[in-house]
Amino acid sequence: FTSTRDIHSEISQTRKMKNSRFQEYTGSNFLRQRLVLATITSRSVRISNIRTRDDDPGLQEAEAGFVRLLDKMTNGSKVEVNETGTQLTYQPGVLLGGRVEHQCSNARGVGYWLEPILALAPFCKNPLHLILTGVTNNQVDPSPDYIKASCLPVLRKFLLDDTGLELNVTKRGAAPGGGGQVVLKCPVKKSPRPVQVLDQGKIKRIRGVAWGVRVSPSVANRVVESAKGKLLQFIPDIYIYTDHMTGGKSGNSPGFGLVLTAETNTGTFLSAEVCSNPAGGGDGPTVPEELGVKGAQLLMEEIFRGGCADSLSQSLAVVLMGLGPPDVSKYMVGPLSPYTVQCLRHVRDFMDLTFKLETLVREDEEDRTLRMGADKVVLTCVGVGFTNLSKRQT
């Protein structure tokens, strides 16, 4: 005797089996994450109901640009978008790499494209040489300097040999006009290695870059002075470079900003950045001194959060841990950002891998007065044993 409930559950399971060719999602959130994980794991994904209730429904220009960039980097990818742009079907091909040039939409900064590509870059067939042009610095997306300071050290921990891993800003373009150019070079790897990164260490020095384009060179110096004034109360070893690009390298719009990085004695980097209001926007001009103080405060907040990966690079660490060999990887981070929480869910969907999360309590910190900063989380997982099959065997 079979109950009706059992029959219904069997029917729903068979339906799921039929549709299991596609990983199904709804909504426009975390689109890049889903497409990157689909590409690495070679699983097809269908995303529906993309901004169906908005006045401007469907994929935005930047999202369509990201799909086009993935298409350029791969061979054999199939992308289908319906007439209204509210449904996207993506069947990933083989990651080719090589020299790829992409013109980014000025609606977002190049960090929108650069940040998720870092998880794909080491697993191409040929070493990746990616040239992105567009807005390098804005208030929404991480700048190339921020990604270089925050994500590249995390990526290096997972690569045994990082020779040839570079990220350079050849032209700087502030929002809204853009005109900047960024070059990413990444070597090819067979698989990421397992890591045990549990010691954050103590902050030993702070470095930074204050940049300015199409503004007076003294603006960057004013930003540096105010930021140093705040940070020198805590640590003496501070050096902030000024980067003032002129002529053809300075893009199409005026702007200035600051990227700060705190380095610990165990080789961990915690970073933060600020950028001036875009020219012609409704927020008015930015005072350089206020921007410098704000940048210093954001860095202190990042140091308070702590961990061995800052809030920008947490999700990159999660993906690379999941792809590692079938060995235990551990990584200590500060409080998880909402983006990382969703990344853990997507890793579970695409790789069938669940992380163990536990709050770290050290023996010497049991006394609350000695505890420094926010509670730390230890991420633990056993990798799925991903190998880059398209890498040439030598």
Account of the protein in words:
With 394 residues, this protein is an alpha+beta fold. 31% of the residues lie in helices and 27% in strands. It contains 9 helices and 18 strands. The protein has helices at 4-19, 31-41, 61-73, 111-120, 144-158, 217-231, 288-305, 314-323, 338-351; strands at 22-26, 44-48, 74-75, 78-81, 88-91, 94-95, 97-103, 126-134, 166-171, 180-186, 196-197, 203-213, 238-245, 255-264, 269-275, 328-333, 356-360, 376-382. It has a 4-stranded mixed beta sheet with strand order 1-2-5-4, with helices on one face. Helix 4 packs parallel to helix 5 (144-158). Mean pLDDT is 92; it is low at 10-18.
Largest sheet: 4 strands, mixed
Order of helices and strands: HEHEHEEEEEHEHEEEEHEEEHHEHEE
Gyration radius from CA atoms, angstroms: 22 Å
Percent strand equals 25-35%
Question: What structural class is derived from the secondary structure elements?
Answer: alpha+beta
Q: With helices defined by DSSP (H or I, 4 residues minimum), what is the helix count?
A: 9
> Unreliable segments (pLDDT under 50, ≥5 consecutive)?
10-18
Rounded mean pLDDT score:
92
Helix content: 25-40%
Tally of strands? 18
User: What is the overall silhouette?
Assistant: globular
Write out the strand line-up for the largest beta sheet, numbering strands in chain order. Answer: 1-2-5-4
Rounded to the nearest angstrom, the distance between the terminal CA atoms is 61 Å
